[in-house]
Amino acid sequence: MDIFDKIDRNFGPLGRFMEHAHGYYMFPKLEGEISNRMVFMGKERLVWSLNNYLGLANHPEVRKADAEAAAKWGMAYPMGARMMSGQTRYHEQLEKELAAFVGKEDAYLLNYGYQGMVSIIEALVDRKDVIVYDSEAHACIIDGMRHHFGKRFVYPHNNIENLEKELARATRLAEKTGGGILVITEGVYGMAGDLGKLREIGDLKKRFRFRLLVDDAHGFGTMGPTGAGTGEHLGAQDQIDVYFATFAKAMAGIGGFVAGDHKVVRFLMYNLRSQIFAKSLPMPMVIGAMKRLELLKNESALREKLWTIVRALQSGLKSRGFNLGRTESPVTPVYFQGGVPEATQITKTLREQYNIFCSLVTYPVVPRDVIMLRLIPTAVHTLEDVDYTIRAFTEIKKKLDEGAYSSGEIAGMTA
Ligand SMILES: Cc1ncc(COP(=O)(O)O)c(C=O)c1O
Question: Could you give phi then psi for residue 111, rounded to 5 degrees?
């Protein structure tokens, strides 16, 4: 059999929607400057799909720093992996600044958050160790665990009673194998917007021996009085043994970092396969990240603006009867009853009649009969954007309740 034969039978869990989705629901092209308004299929739309939380993507100082760094260094320097020939004082300086900001002894840069997380998990555990993780863990955590040869136990999302039971099981097993326990959660859950119960998990350290790894991709820069993340927001930063965040969201860049005690970070530097065997972050990403971090730390007005938009959007939608689930962060899921056909018709109506571009989330991320439209408010949105969107959602919900989207047809692309 040809290895490619199976492609005809099975295009994969997402690929099977390709015919209807490509270029529209999946792989859409958003054009123009990153902002609240971008061009989709030739027309300007109000965009609620980008994790540009603080609006740094097009901040003039960021654009200037990026451009100057690219002009000075090019995109190539430094060549090679950090360990071999890709180390610079700027990488080290950024690491120091990041560590200080999140209140940890040390930090290490990651070329991409996803790859970094996979390697962090792989490096921290061996076959004797046990991983206990939240059932809604991001793909990078799941994929990191695929490298783990020992046991892993899952607890239902944020269910601390169940976590306790799994920790008791893990403790018995680890006593037998002579291994340790790693608990993994997220700070902000990027789909539903709720927070990992970092305090409650931290409290369990009084009764169980484990280390806590937190993926704070959506919390870094958005949560906490200084923006240092979900741990800061919940008063649990000290309970986090290994703190992870990406630059892909509030920092509007590429890369990420891991922070913790000096010894642990040094161990990771020498053991993260995705970093040892991959090229170092190029200089414009590093210099650009320093500028972003400076603004994230010093321009609290950006975070205040973000939260003004978040509060207006979330309270406005809630007061009109929308179900936003359990969000406690800027991530704003709006849940409707319905299946994939209704979901596509609603999304298409929003895009084409209202010029609102937001992301559609369907089964298996949410149950089969649930539609989730996910809105990401940012500091570059306006209160007028919020009002307009609430009005559009209200009209759409009325039509949905009247059965206007119940033809059972998946809406394809016509725009
Ligand atoms: C929770 C979470 N972890 C990790 C990542 C991966 O980060 P990166 O885009 O830097 O690979 C993402 C998405 O960007 C994410 O949402």
Answer: -65, -40
